UniProtKB/TrEMBL annotation:
Keyword Transmembrane helix applies: yes
Keywords carried by this UniProt record: Membrane, Transmembrane, Transmembrane helix
Subcellular location as annotated: Membrane
Transmembrane spans: 146-168, 174-198, 219-240, 252-271, 283-303, 354-372, 384-406, 426-452, 472-495, 501-522, 560-586
Residue segments, region Disordered: 8-33
Domain Amino acid transporter transmembrane per the UniProt entry, residue ranges: 145-521
Biased segments, Basic and acidic residues type: 11-33
Pfam families in the record: Aa_trans (PF01490)
Topological type in the membrane: Multi-pass membrane protein
Family (UniProt): Belongs to the amino acid/polyamine transporter 2 family.
Protein name: Putative amino acid transporter
Native species: Mollisia scopiformis
Keyword Cell membrane appears in the UniProt entry: no
Amino acid sequence: MSLAALALDGGDPRLHVEGEPEKGLETPEKDGHDLVEGNRTAALVRPVTRPLYDNTISFEEFVYYAEKTRAEEEAHVADIKGTQGWLEMIFPSKSGMGAGNVTADEKHGAKLAHDMTLADPRARLQISDDEWTNASRALRTATKSAIFYLITTDILGPFGLPYAFAGMGWGPGVALFTVFAGLAIYSGYLLWTIFMGMDSYEYPIKSYGDMGQRLYGPWLRFIFNVLQALQLVFNVGLIVVSNGEALSQAAKFKLCFAVCCLVWCLAGFILGQVRTLQKFGWLANAAVWLNVICMIITMGAAAHTAPNYLGASQSIGAALNNGTSVTAVNGVYPAVQHSNGLPPSPTFAGSVNAAMQAVFSYGGAMIFPEFMSEMRYPRDFLKGMWAAQSFIYLVYMFYGLFMYGYQGQYVINPSFLGIGPYNFQTAGNVFAMISSAIAAALYGNIGIKVIYNNIFVEWFHAPGLTTKAGKIIWTGMIPVYWSIAFAIGAGIPAFAGLSGIVSAICILQFTFTFPPFLSIAYNMKRNAMLPEEGFDPATGPYARKDKGPKRWIRGFFGKFWWMNIFNFFYTGGALTLAALGAYAGIEIVKQAFASGASNSFVCKSPLQ
């Protein structure tokens, strides 16, 4: 899923420089000066000349420039077009997603940053601080309307939830989904707090990895980037396979299933060319309402027609009661069944994997930092996030319970594949395939740019994405990326098991594990700062009065100490659930391989 910063043609100007500054430019002797004044020590380096991912920037400097940026945003709030009301956020105007609220000075700064791509890195020394910050401002145009629709675009959320309720039962399903909703909102708030406290025009936060590096070090940025790339490629693969199943069903299984999947892989080669956030915002808008239409169609069909018995082998019932609840006797299938508590399952893994499907509904936190980085007024992120999470909780849960109520153990993941009559199947599949393709395009676009910016640019000094050469390379990576995603998704026969593994290893971490983990470090660093410590742009960072365990204890048990304690146990609990979820998903996949279930490289559809 970046749907924001990484989806733009632009980005951090430092990403567009061919290679890093020469070593001399990073040292105080060549750029700035050494200074000792009272308790201040300085090795002044202008933000514009800092290399990408500079580890020498102090936490105090990040905080100083973040406070400066937030103050400037508040001072100009009347001129910012990102402050729509609630109604306008849901039904935005033509420019409501974020449009031309960029000043001439900001466009000039962005052009200078772009022009540096083919120049000597030393030329950046000629850019003034105002031009540098204007370049950063020019990239911030998104409104909370775009945020609302981008968060709710998660295509696998609503259509996997009936499967989750069927695997957990009425009571546990509602309770767990409610807990997930509350914790997801809390995690979003933690990420927003960290972003507001460390992001600035001088040092913009562009990704989850930026947060990890600033609070813990480069090792955490590497872990974040790897998991983010894995989640995105698996999401694309899952959507390709689910769309292949929908197309095969719509074609009445007359088209080879492998070809059905390949069709969507090829479609990704074209859809992946969409680049800008404004266009993605409107695509996300369309995807959300297409999802709603698909949900209405499938609910209407489920309420008046029988389940898709032909696809019973892919239903949740196949994993419950040894499959007896979906096995026909003398040509007659068992009646729809429900469970108030956990339904009987031959393995603990079945119930845990069902719970992981509910986690999919809250998988957008991975790209919350990217969303915030592109907002003209980041404070509005909370309103967009609250609206999106409320929508996900109320609408998705109603849909999940409704489908479980009418289809019970015959629910399939994704649920629109479980409709019996062909005409309703086709109607639901068409809308689902279109919205899925939009979501896959978003995920693929970001996944490619995460890899490009964090591997090709940083390690191999590839040209920036705004250059002609960078665009050509990126365009060539699209078919490679989609082909890899298709191979991964199609090669594993158990769709529900694969989505459960992705939920546990990636989605759950970014939504429930990493936010409290990052918040602990952020609170400790803020609390550890003494009144006589800080940063002065004229002299540099003040010398810290202490270090080591004494500073750590003061930071942990300072302001909001109770939140640090809660976050500590929250992180541990999330890691435990992730381990259980990964185990459950792996067991489901192992069982699928052991039973001889076919993968997607065959002509027979799993629903056939």
